[in-house]
Amino acid sequence: MKKILAMPLLASTMILSACGGGSSSSGDRIEALQVNEYAGVWYLAEADNYLKITDDGNGRIYRCSLYDGYRADERVSLQVSGDIVTLSHDGGDEGEVKLMRNGEQLSLIAGIEEINYQQQAAMPDACNGNAVEITYVSPTEAVLGVEQTFVVNFDYRVADISAELAIAFTSDDGERTIINSDETILVDDRDIASGSITVNHTRRYQGDDAYSLYVLMYPAGSDEEFPILASDEQVINIVR
């Protein structure tokens, strides 16, 4: 089975415990200074995304889209407090990552993992990087224990290498698992193009009322492990 590597951007697996802080006014002033230290626009070249942190510590990830330049990922939010950033996905806490600034470099550190963003004056208005956007999914509901055929249409753009597109679903452990790995599309279009993949899938896990279907783009010819170049997500509701 192919293993999807965490995209180098604030991965939810990067979790640290925050140190407790005092409640004195001097502590509040120190925290405010640290938040301001990290405020700005930061760029991660290998993932082609931007991290924007405001003076009050709110953060957003901006990803290259097909039609709207760099667009905020509304599913992911960040809150900076001191040198700790709390990550949330779809409103649920994902974990905490330590921040460290060295001049124009901002590092996010969790254990032995480190992601390095570079400071930028601003985000560009347009982008032409890897991108994929779901345009149609049917059905958008799943019946537990029943095999169903999912038809997924999408638009995409590949930036500079050949890539493959495949369908994945959230598995029982919360990871993304590719379904029917032979049901992929090999692409090298530099302009925007359209594709469609049909897969059969049976949902068996009963722990949630919804889960996610993904269109994943990854380098062509990938073996057991590979990075995600771009992705899009559609929530599938479970019918009981």
UniProtKB/TrEMBL annotation:
**Protein name, per record:** Lipocalin-like domain-containing protein
Q: Which PROSITE patterns match?
A: PROKAR_LIPOPROTEIN (PS51257)
Q: Which domain of life is it from?
A: Bacteria
Q: Where is the signal peptide?
A: 1-18
* Keywords, in A-Z order: Signal
